[in-house]
């Protein structure tokens, strides 16, 4: 069997294959951070894709942690109830497990939707707010500086991550991913480019890692025993000409996360600094996943312009990663897993309503959900 279609375990959760739908912000929530009809059709589409797991978009643990005013939230029970109702509907059409990525955007918050320009919205605007970060360094020079979180505010943030995690479990998500990548708040604490603190959360690598590890510990305390908690990190800031967050730092963080029984490491890169110099190309982030995989004994998910089935299978066969994350590729082709199964000569489980669409030459490729 192709490795891409072999089961994998994330703590107590077993996935039918190793195709992961990575989180993708939709900027389509209500002003109150609640799901809309867009999420209903989008999540249903994901559920029928044949992938092994869907991790839905970055979902804020505080109102000021949204990237935009149209982002999802889990900072209150009403938001959780709306999500629970939607997940209950999804489970009537597909057994695919759904996960949520809990996040705080930090200094990269309070921006317009991408298709409306994506620029920062001033805190004086009705749709904007004061951003926060590890230090008062703005993401871009022309932007409003963030408020540097106090020690008390950091403790509240940790509590809010845990409270949102508890809501996520109660809403029906089967896995939680912590967002510590792409220049958002937890990444802002990790990188010396954005963290200029002089207390226990700044300075040394140990201090800069402290918040991420405390968030993991707090979440693990409120979720059921064995419940999978994973994390997404940026393995490098792509700022090699100066002291920044880099692969060696990510390896040290990954080892510390493994010691806390994290379910997996989801390896992306970048997003911390506007001057990043990214060498983009097919599989351009996979080498970072491979390096981290060599350093830990827990599953590693690779992402980064992985678009072809043979490419994905090759990454797994060469032991550079344990699972493959797809984002834009699956937005463009929502049945990517079906085509991958056909290409690799494997069967894939689908809703029985789709069985009649199977081409004659691929007889028995599609099998009904069990």
What does this entry show, briefly?
The protein is of the alpha/beta class.
Description:
By secondary structure, the chain is α/β, with parallel strands linked by helices. The protein has a single domain (3-368), classed as TIM Barrel, CATH 3.20.20.70. The protein has 10 helices and 14 strands. The protein has helices at residues 37-47, 77-90, 151-171, 185-190, 205-222, 247-259, 286-295, 309-317, 328-332, 336-344, and strands at residues 8-10, 13-15, 19-21, 53-60, 98-103, 132-133, 147-148, 175-180, 229-234, 265-268, 300-302, 323-326, 348-350, 366-368. Strands 3-4-5-8-9-10-11-12 form an 8-stranded parallel barrel, surrounded by 5 helices. A two-stranded antiparallel ribbon has the order 1-2. Strands 6-7 form a two-stranded parallel ribbon. Strand 11, helix 8 (309-317) and strand 12 (323-326) form a beta-alpha-beta unit. The radius of gyration is 20 Å and the shape is globular. The two termini are 19 Å apart.
Compute the number of strand runs: 14
CATH topology: TIM Barrel
Shape label: globular
**Class by helix and strand content?**
alpha/beta
Residue share in helices? 25-40%
Return the domain count: 1
Distance between the termini: 19 Å
Specify the CATH architecture.
Answer: Alpha-Beta Barrel
CATH superfamily: Aldolase class I
Uncertain runs are none
The CATH C-level class name: Alpha Beta
Keywords: Flavoprotein, FMN, NADP, Oxidoreductase
Domain NADH:flavin oxidoreductase/NADH oxidase N-terminal: 4-344
Protein name: Oxidoreductase
GO molecular function: FMN binding; NADP binding; NADPH dehydrogenase activity
